[in-house]
Design goal:
alpha/beta; 2 domains; TIM Barrel; globular; binds iron/sulfur cluster; about 450 residues
Length: about 450
């Protein structure tokens, strides 16, 4: 396994990412005018005032200590954030007091996922709490060096379902198109650990042309999901080009973008970006949020810009042991997402990716969390809990059992308070009284 280092990881700014394929490649690094976010603009009515105050104080003291000469203009520039990512153990040591488990990870050459943390996300991590939920998701530990039975590098069998590299065609009417293998922050539990940060998949050249050609030539495809890596780490210009190519295909009805950017690099969501995105409606976005601590004033602002541009937002959360595996934490996260106008969409059972056993809970734990949400909070705040079937079988919903069975002509149901109810569920009843049987209240 190749050791990933900052030298061989490919940054979207440094290598052929600013121009569409078949045009001259613009390799020069440019900082575009930044979109300034004065602290006062981060004051949000739906966000508890004290939490906003604490967040501001923490951010100021972090910046004063670690980035004293950095201006607001630089800090709020997403490209500055990417260029100044923490990507080596030495850099990490400056910010965090590393535990033995964390240090041991770096002594081994088999770490598969590169290290990458934006200064913004680093400002959310406590220096001396290795068990902090956000820290666990982005700082490697020795546990990821171990493989347990049932784990695989490509558990969802994406490679076998890719007719063109980076284009996964699993379901008849939709495809997953991986645009780039770069992310601004690397999650230690990533399903695509086998490929992220390697610099092999980028949004250019023959590969992308072939993928677009395949979509053009397959009329059953009505829905294209752009993912990676993180597609929003591409420049506006590159993304604009890709979206225009896909939108020009008559049978493609829906375009979706999967991204973690609003949680880890909210500075990327600029008015210029959303102005470009809204040209391609109907465009949907799946956002990856893991823990309520990611729902900062900056993240609120980012989702507000996206929602105001008419982009329907859904969230995808991976259930992670020691990170979000309690009803309280999950409910808190779902409530934040609702306030951010993000519909909780999927709760994923953690995929059996090699080296992630320390993150996996039992499926029973996931059902316990859904049981703790359903009926106890708004229905909109309850995501679909799914297991992505190993081998490529797709997402399979897993539900706590609320149906007790049939008794005579009744369906016996159990509600969220464990009370039993009966519903007349006889086919004969409906045939005898068709009108009554088909009337439903709102
Ligand atoms: S942002 Fe997504 S693709 Fe990137 S490391 Fe995290 S889970 Fe993987």
């Amino acid at each position: 396994m190749q050791q990933i280092t900052p030298e061989n990881e490919q940054s979207p700014f440094l290598e052929q990412e600013d121009e569409p394929p078949s045009r001259c490649l613009h390799r020069e690094l440019k900082l575009r005018p930044s979109f300034l976010i004065p602290d006062r603009q981060l004051t949000l009515p739906s966000f508890p005032r004290q939490i906003q105050k604490d967040a501001l104080t923490r951010k100021r003291s972090f910046r004063k200590r670690f980035f004293p000469g950095v201006t607001d203009k630089q800090w709020n520039n997403w490209q500055w954030q990417v260029q100044n990512r923490i990507s080596t153990p030495t850099q990490l040591n400056r910010f965090l007091k590393l535990s033995n488990e964390e240090q041991s990870a770096f002594h081994n050459l088999n770490v598969k996922i590169p290290l990458g943390i934006t200064p913004y996300y680093m400002s959310l991590l406590p220096a001396d709490e290795p068990d902090n939920p956000l820290r666990r998701t982005v700082v490697p530990t020795v546990h990821e060096l171990f493989k347990v039975p049932g784990e695989a590098n490509d558990p969802l069998n994406e490679e076998a379902q890719s007719l063109v590299p980076g284009l996964v065609h699993r379901y008849p009417d939709r495809v997953l198109l991986l645009l780039i293998d770069f992310c601004s922050v690397y999650c230690r539990y990533c399903t695509r650990a086998r490929m992220i940060g390697r610099g092999n998949i980028h949004a250019g050249g023959l590969r992308l042309e072939k993928a677009i050609e395949y979509i053009k030539n397959t009329p059953t495809i009505r829905d294209v999901l752009l993912s990676g890596g993180d597609p929003l780490t591409l420049s506006d210009k590159k993304l604009d080009w890709v979206l225009s190519q896909i939108r020009a295909i008559p049978h493609v009805e829906i375009i979706r973008i999967g991204t973690k950017v609003p949680a880890v690099l909210p500075q990327r969501i600029t008015p210029q970006l959303v102005k470009m995105l809204r040209k391609y409606h109907p465009l949907w976005m799946s956002l990856h949020f893991t823990h309520p601590d990611e729902c900062t004033p900056e993240a609120y602002r980012a989702t507000r810009l996206l929602a105001d541009a008419g982009i329907p937002l859904g969230s995808q959360t991976v259930l992670l042991k020691g990170v979000n595996d309690t009803v309280e934490t999950m409910k808190d996260l779902m409530h934040h997402l609702m306030k951010m106008r993000v519909r909780p969409y999927y709760l994923y059972q953690c995929d059996p990716v090699t080296g992630t056993s320390h993150f996996r809970t039992t499926v029973e734990k996931g059902m316990e969390i859904i049981r703790g949400l359903r009926g106890h909070t708004s229905g909109y705040a309850v995501p679909n809990y799914v297991v992505d079937a190993p081998g490529g079988g797709g997402k399979i919903p897993v539900m706590p059992n609320y149906v007790m069975g049939h008794q005579e002509n009744d369906l016996v149901l159990c509600n969220y308070e464990d009370k039993i109810f009966r519903y007349p569920d006889s086919v004969d009843n409906f045939n005898q009284y068709p009108d009554q049987g088909s009337i439903h209240g709102c």
